[in-house]
Fold these 4 entries.
Entry 1:
Amino acid sequence: MPSQPPVWQQASDPDRVTRLLELSDRAVAGDGPVPRRNPASTSRLVRDGSVFLLTDGDTDLAMITVCEAEPTEEGERYYPPTERPAYMRRLAVHPDRQGSLLAMQAVQHAIRIARQRGATALRCETNPDNEAALRLLQLQGFRTCSPSLEADGTRHVLLWRAV
């Protein structure tokens, strides 16, 4: 019997989400620092229906978060105005599957979700030194709209695209 293709589903278990985030974070960080995650924030995002997992049976392959967020002073300064923005956050791919097309599929899924929810633009941020992430986002139509910024010792750039 042929196996079923992986399926995107709305996450319901914050612990599963946290496990995948931590695995991905450690793999991406290499010898560098691993981001600290806030379990309460993860629980809230899962409860709000903002987190999506790509699963193959019992294995979590990738995840993406698409949510509404309060505007920040930094964001308002750099993002182009739009009526109803959505925010893409927490892209994670299982370490065994990094280098595959799963990150691209996650971004494409986020674009579909934002569109279905009536967003007019999808906004995100990434580390300007993460050339692979920047290239991936640009190939999916995202445009950089800020210089390299720093907050809490972390560098990032803001990106957006119309949906």
Entry 2:
Amino acid sequence: MGLSRASLDAAALAQGRGGVNRFGSRPQRCRSPDNAFSRGQSCTQIRIVVLDSSALLCLLQAEPGAERVAETLATALVSAVNVAETVGKLREAGLSAAEVRDVLGSLPLDVRPFTDDRAHAAGALRLATRALGLSLGDRACLALALETNALALTTDRRWLKLDVGVAIEALR
């Protein structure tokens, strides 16, 4: 299956063994709550990154932006909610439960629990994100990024319209 092959490529990228860049370089799209990027700081200079499920799927499917996700994996965080979303998408794509465990288990993911505090933070983000149609998973990612003062990495460009106190990078 295509996802399994892409997952092997993603795992190779994540482990620093390289990979073929079929997409060429693309400009980074960033938004920072304090205009740090306008002062010369780039998205790649923020050390802590929180991955949205769309970023994980981008990596696993070797889509444009996959190399950027791969370069963050060693220090990236991901909410358990985003892992659940990713599992669901991979199962919908036809992977078995065992294949999904193998694929995600091959990645060095630092999965953070969806604690009571994070649940409240994600719920509080509902009003600010409702107009853009963000999901619970999206808000879980944003809540974790807000808590850890990290960059939220997503493929969803709508996030760049947000003003919720989180630095955001859209992969495409």
Entry 3:
Amino acid sequence: MLDMCLPHLLAPKGQKVTRHEHKPKSSPVRSAGLTLAEWLTVIAITAALASIALPRLSTALANLRLRSAESNLIGSLLSARNEAIKRGVPVQMGPRLGRDWKSGWRVTAVDTGEPLDNREWLGRRIDVATAPEFIVYDGKGELITSDPVRIQLDERISETVAASRCVIVDASGLPRATAGECR
């Protein structure tokens, strides 16, 4: 009701105000949606982009899983080293089950057998290709061997190695990681 009075209030005195009916402009019969040909074009472009992106995404996910396993391993190695220094006694890190590092690992004080750290398995696609039976730090946080220790982590996809990372612990006990296989 107010919008009917508003033009009368705003019009100059003495001027007659007429009401205009707005008719919709004529438009073509076509609706606002997409045609079948347009949909097929969109699907074809999406499929082409996906076929380019999926292999790269697979590689990126493999590297992400490897980096995560590497990070867990390095974290436990540093924890073992720090405990050895803090306690002033040898600390060892080894697989949870036999020689199977893939099952996870545990860090224990050598003299008491006290568990200091425990990690679960690495995941179904991560494999430990090379690793020693145990890694032992002396009370100063150095390896008891003078040779560096190498642990190779592999990402496997359908029995094929997709990517590898090598964790190297030098004689001083500090770990570092490199891309590729251990040499």
Entry 4:
Amino acid sequence: MTKHIKQNIIKNVIVLIIAVFMWPILSNSLIQIQPEQANNFLLTISTLLVTVCFANFAFTYEKSKLKSKLGNLLSHFAVGIFMLLLALFLESIVMVMGAMYPFFHIMIFSFSILLYIGVVLYDFWDILRSEA
């Protein structure tokens, strides 16, 4: 296992811990959303989610300077922020959709988990590609 893979594992674990820790905080904040405001909130969060996904997929370790300490740190920090935002936006969508449409909660939660897993796998694939 290379140094960059180990760093990537640490980054992803830290992001996941922060996202899990933020669940009750987000939940308490989102309780204040009125049902008539939920659609506007979901539209805003979805737009931000697409923006973060674009930024995350536009970045590549292949073009960053992983061999320098600063390049390595900036690369992991930038991707870590993108992944944390992605996780928090997905959590927000799951919570609001669960409140508005309880019968869709499991489905939306499952889709969000699969999307996040896909992003994490892409992150590892991108690191491996940069080392080839």
